[in-house]
Every structure is written in C-alpha cells, then in structure tokens.
Design brief:
By secondary structure, the chain is mainly alpha-helical. 41% of the residues lie in helices and 6% in strands. The protein has 8 helices and 3 strands; from the N terminus they run H-H-E-E-H-H-E-H-H-H-H. A 3-stranded antiparallel beta sheet has the order 1-2-3. Helix 6 (110-118) packs parallel to helix 8 (140-148).
Length: 158
C-alpha cells in the first residue's frame, strides 16, 4: 500500500483543518475541532500528486494524522469523536475504502496503530481491494501490535 498523502507537494493546502494537521499545529487543530466538531466527519478532497488524469481522494482529518504518524494529533481527533474505522472515499487503487489503521500500519507508525487499536479499530478490516492493516504492515512492531489485537494473517485477499 502506497502511503503517500493525496496532496500535491507544491501549493497551499485548501482546507484549513487539514493544513493545521500537516503543520503539526495541535492547539489550532483543537480550537478548530471545538468550534466545529462536525469537521471530523467531513471528507476533504485533496489532489493526488502526479495522477493522470488528475483526480482527487477524499480523506477525513483522522486519515491525514494517521498517515503522517502524528500520535498526538490522532489522540486529539479520537478523543473529539473521530471514528477509528471511518473509510476514505478514494478513487486510487491504494487508498480505496482504507481506514486510518490501514494508513498507519502501512506507514510503520506503531504508536498511532496502538492508539487506533485502543480506540477499538477493527484489526481485520478490509479495504476495497481486500487488504487488511496486517497485510499493509512492514514494520515488526506494527505487525506485533496487530497480532496481539487479533489480526488474522489469513484474512483478506489471497
């Protein structure tokens, strides 16, 4: 699973909450979530870098924080009501119907994986291609965390 974020590296981020997440501006993210909690459940369209034809993926704030491996940001989003099993709405083969756990697992972000599992993220969830977070993981610590949470090595696409 490719964990590149669906954001062109050049140019400004269009969504202020996503921009604050990418900047690591935790106080600003808290402030924005407190002012408008529903934003946690709003998929934000982001351009896919280098995609031909041009396309966008739709990610929630939790997906961005998890893919970045920002544990403090993930903790804030989860405590504010972000759902650990929410899905991307992505056209890309790599990210279609992925969860934050898929993205954190693929990125080798063990602390984030632990936070998501503690928030009852489903370790055997399948994305649109039948991939589980365990199948996306390469990091031994992440694999161990998923295994301890009941991830089934035989689940998913063969």
């Amino acid at each position: 699973m490719d964990v590149r974020l669906p954001i062109a590296e050049e140019g400004p981020l269009r969504d202020p909450l996503v921009a604050a997440i990418h900047a690591g501006a935790l106080p600003r993210v808290r402030e924005m979530i407190e002012a408008e909690p529903r934003r946690l459940h709003h998929h934000v369209a982001m351009p896919v870098p280098g995609a031909e034809p041009p396309r966008e993926e739709l990610w929630l704030p939790l997906h961005h924080a998890a893919a970045l491996g920002d544990a403090a940001m993930v903790a804030v989003i989860l405590s504010a009501g972000g759902h650990p099993d929410a899905r991307t709405r992505a056209a890309s083969p790599d990210h279609a119907r992925a969860t934050a756990l898929h993205l954190a697992s693929a990125g080798g972000h063990a602390t984030v994986v632990g936070l998501l599992l503690d928030a009852d993220a489903e370790p055997n969830v399948l994305d649109a291609h039948g991939t589980t977070p365990l199948a996306a993981a390469n990091d031994p610590t992440v694999v161990g965390l998923l295994g301890a949470a009941g991830a089934d090595p035989s689940a998913g696409a063969a």
